[in-house]
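Exercise 7 asks you to align residues with tokens for two separate proteins.
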Amino acid sequence: MKHLHLPMKLKFFGKKQIKKIPNYKGNGLSLQTLLIAPLILQVTLALTITSWLSIQNGQRTVSNITNNLSGEIGQRIQLQLQTYLETPHQLNKSHQLIFRNQWLQSNDLNGIGGFILQSLEDFPSLHYTAWANEKGQYVGISKLPNLDYEIELVEDPNTKEFLTYRMGLDGKKGDFLRASPLYDPRTRPWYQAAKQAGDAKWSSIYVWFDNSKIAIDAVLPVYRDRNKQELLGVIDTPITLDEISKFLMELRIGKTGKAFIIEQNGLLVASSVSEQKTRSQTGKVERVAATESTDIVISQIAQQLSAKLGKTETFKDRQSLTMEIAKEKHFIQLLPFKDARGLDWLIVIDIPEKDFSEEIFAITRWNLLISGVVLITTIIILTIIAKLVIRQIMTVIKKANAIAKGEWQEPISEIGTTELKLLAKSFNQMSSQLQESFNKLQYSASHDLSTGLPNRATFFNALQIEIINQKQIQSQQTSQESQYLFAVLFFDIDNFKEINDSFGHLFGDMLLLEVAARIQDFLSPNDLLAKFGGNEFTILLRNLNTFHDANLVSESIIRSFRNPFFVCGSKVFASTNIGVSLSTSNYELPDSYLRDADTALSVAKKAGKNRYEVFGIMMHVQIEERLRLETELRLSINLDEFLVYYQPIISLQTNKLTGFEALIRWNHPVLGFVSPNKFIQIAEESGQISRLTRFVLRQACLQLKQWQDQFLCFDSLIVNVNLSTQDFLDPMLVNDIEEILQVTKLSPHNLKLELTESAIASNIGGVGAMLRQLRSMGIGICIDDFGTGYCSLQYLLLLPANTLKIDRIFIEQLTTNIQAKEIFSFFVQLAHGLNMETVAEGIEINEQSDIITRLNCDFGQGYLWSPPLPAREIENMLQQLKNNPSI
């Protein structure tokens, strides 16, 4: 590149003579050309690239929107279908209990009808459910849109007459409505499907016997016993295809998008456009194949799917496709829908490209047009301005460079155009204010703006100076001379967030000002009070005579908080705790002193309000041990270091084994067995307790089921598992327990859950609701550690517990304290009066066992019989009991 030679001329502006750069007329490029030409090139290139990118982005946007929308709708359909289709099976399962428990006989049609009516009230989404027995008798309850009910009966299997009556909410049969001949439920598809499957099952899609609807039925066979030797009958809850279509019709899929569901055979299950069923010449309802749908889009999608994918049974994973229908692009989302009870459907989502492309491309065109006009106008304006400014701007640049070098007082001559004169004047004002701004900046960098106190950085600097002074003085002193002493105090305002939330942040700032003013009264001029952050304060006590002076200051500050603070005319009480670290630590860095003071503050807070603690080395040791245990705990949960031990529970009346309490043990590879008293609290505070609870539940249920299968004589044993307070904050607790029971195949009646009184008192509403769900499943509920003072007696009326476990503190004093014996007797009588069993834990000597037996306690647990043992030793115990039941 050629160098530009800029000759200088002199020109006079008023009385002052300055150098001026004239227009350059040599061979080089002018400054104006260098500014304008690249800009024009950039604008042209930018418009071209923007146009191309806008089109590409528009197409990608349409594709992404449709794919995401169809995927989201598909997932929503899947999830809602799963929930909706699970409901009839849940209803069937609840009906199964009335026959399993022999609450109703299989031929008691009126009683069964009344029970079905009550259960339909609890399942608003269901409209029909029925029962048919092996004799051919049938009872079905239909919920009508006007909230009336009808009962349908086949009472005499010989006549096979299907009779329909009105039915009141009281379960009584009303007016006769109609009759249909020759109905045998045992020949119907739903009955045959249940009988063949032997378990919960979906029937094939079929036409109702009266040709009114097409349905698919959730069926469940009921046997007299668990061996499924004698079939009593079948519970049937149908869902019509019209109900599934209604769900699809309510979805919003873009502007004109559609959704439909098909079976492997290509027949439509449901669609979002219309009811897909027709009547043949005989008047019989028939299903429609998707390829023959009256909707052109659905039929063409089905035809192209058949050609591209073949039979639907080969389709296993979610797929996204594009199709051209009527010369328009369509985005298709395919999602398989299967379950363990026989469903194998395909969900198809269709969104036309035109639903989104027209608006997006129109917006893109307008954006490009507006951008082009704006950029061209900008080029024209810049060209004009460049011609006016370039000749005079160099003078201002020279003066601006002087200011940039820190020459704030050097003025700039107000020359040239009006704008340049204003610019020069602004530079002059800036130079006069720059020093003031710099001073303010220094103050802001070293002080807290809300209180005016020194901030964290200033405190660190001051503390670092104290550390250096201490080192220098110590290096010059002899051992007989007194040491240079200082202390760091760290404190904050208790419950300051609640004060801010209640009165506002401005009120909180005013309170901090009052606190700072009060504390200054207890400090010497040599000490430093700083705002560390938020509502945290630090104090540096310099040149102390003894460390007792730091204690006196801490006590004075805490005492001062007993008096109210007056903020904005209001009286406010506050409290604080103080952590103190001393210079005897001989640290090199300020952060080490703050760390120790913060640690001491944490210890003070745990010990109670309005107190101070001086840092000691054991505080570090305790905190490090806790952090190490928490870290090891998180890792150990994934390394299978936990074991489940089992402590026998003995019947005091028969002296026989009735069950076990499952207790978790941690066998650390380095630390050995870690006491539950150490790691359970850490697990609760760190949020790991739920994972431990699930582990114990799964292991205990699986182990008990194995023992039941191995020792048939012990099939009535019960395993007790403890739940923590945090477990009841988990909305998935009931579902997880149900899933564990299903996987391990353990009966709910062989499981009992123990919860402490503190867990009940912390959330009686939520705990009560969960316990009622668990109790309805047949799971036992035990209130653990009863009598320790947290639980109100009214909770015994509100909670569905069936066992009280009396705390070991009363058992320990039974032989020495008559009052303990009276309280224990009262607990037993109270439990028996509420039809609850009692368990005494912590029994260690025969004398204790004799006393609680005389007081009619039902069960005992403790080292008198056995400590908690691993599974293999319990298995040996069961083998001995099997061989010698008299042991």
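Second protein for Exercise 7:
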Amino acid sequence: MFLASVLIILSLLHGYVGFRLIAPFSVSGNFLYIYWGVITLLAMAPLSGIVLRVKGVENYSTDLLLWVGYTSLGLFSLAFIIFFIRDIGWLLGLAIGKLFIFMNGEKGTPSTFSVDRRQFILMAVNWGIVGTTGTLGAVGLFQARKLPKVFRRKIKLQRLPEKLSGLSIVQISDLHVGPTIKLDYVQKVVEQVNVLEPDLIFFTGDMVDGSVDYLSRDVEPLRQLKAKYGKYFVTGNHEYYSGAEHWEAKAQELGLKNLRNEHEILKIRGESIAIAGITDLMAHQVLKSHRSDPRKALAGIPEAMATLMLAHQPGSASQVGDLKIDLMLCGHTHGGQYYPFNLAVARAHPYIAGLYRQGNMQVYVNQGTGYWGPPLRLGIPSEITLIELISGKSSVA
């Protein structure tokens, strides 16, 4: 059912753009067959690549297919929006013209373009859309592939002991090592993180898109991450598409403490703070034993102790009820990744990027250290978050 839905969406998206692109031209015969053959192949490429990867076919050819498919998907999605806006404008113009005729009679009939002139204008507009889409695609690719931006945040926690004011945390999330993100990108992220010299590092899921066997070399730089008091990891939904238990073990082997509905209490500067972590919100759909359980994760933490929770999806905030959590750190949304699709993501998630308050708990959503699918980011950069915790008892601003 899921694959059928995706196939329908891809077909409609590519079909609509394909029809709009070719509309002004008088094309027939073999060229028309070739044209629609290419459109069909581009529509099928991302889904075919995903199916091959799920079936265990992970190699350079599958990665190349996904590079082509994801790039095409990004460009066609941008073109779809631009064509859709143009067509709405065109229809509004026709409606206004008809209303003008109705209000003014035949004398008010606006002058009409000849068929040739109308076709020329349509062709010019189409070429303009192609150029705009190509430019946006190139800019989006550059922004997606460049180094993530470091977002610096000061977050005040009322229960944080004063001696822990200034405690620094680096959060990374949604790296999505896989078909289009490889060792070189991971190495640069690790170098960026280590320059920040954090006290703690939190990785809030979606490390990978692929198996441990295929991606072990590409995630190897994560072993070099350095933090004074510990490095922690929780699973995201994509780990469950790629062998979650294997990736949990690999994370541990790389030096990241995996928190599967559990916590650790750290003693820092003579004071205690709890670090809890839960599995992905949808984990139970793949592994029933991995059902996300915030209550279990917090069991045994003293009531007065400041508590941080790692959760991949911001939707997990709806699970916590009256549990005492000072700060929940999430990812998953990518901040919408690129305009205007961030608007749709904002409708699907209560929290999309940045800092929010839910009762006495604060929720921070990292907008992704990598990207997923189309290698595009427009106006929404990749993020490494550097958080400085401030005690509510402290006079520090």
